[in-house]
């Protein structure tokens, strides 16, 4: 998925989270994926990926 698609999905899931917090983990995962795509520094990307792995575990 590209960044634009992830941003659109994040907006849609944000609406779902407001209605039902059960969707919060999906929203968090999208936030992490977007952050990793936006990071230009390799260390920042690695940190974003690791943060995503911790959030899933």
Order of helices and strands: HHH
Low-confidence stretches: none
Morphology call: flat
Mean pLDDT figure = 88
In terms of quaternary structure, the protein is single chain
**Beta content:** under 5%
Please estimate the helix content: over 70%
Rg calc: 12 Å
Number of H- or I-type helical stretches: 3
Walk me through what this model shows.
It contains 3 helices and no strands. The chain is an all-alpha fold and 57 residues long. The chain has one domain. The two termini are 22 Å apart. The model has no long low-confidence stretch (mean pLDDT 88).
Fold topology:
Layout: H1 3-19, H2 24-38, H3 42-56
Quickly describe the structure:
By secondary structure, the protein is mainly alpha-helical.
Any descriptors?
single chain, 3 helices, 57 residues, mainly alpha, flat
């Amino acid at each position: 998925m590209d960044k634009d698609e992830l941003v659109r999905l994040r907006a849609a899931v944000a609406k779902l989270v407001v209605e039902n917090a059960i969707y919060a983990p999906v929203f968090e995962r999208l936030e992490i994926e977007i952050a990793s795509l936006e990071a230009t520094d390799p260390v920042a990307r690695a940190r974003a990926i690791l943060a995503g792995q911790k959030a899933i575990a």
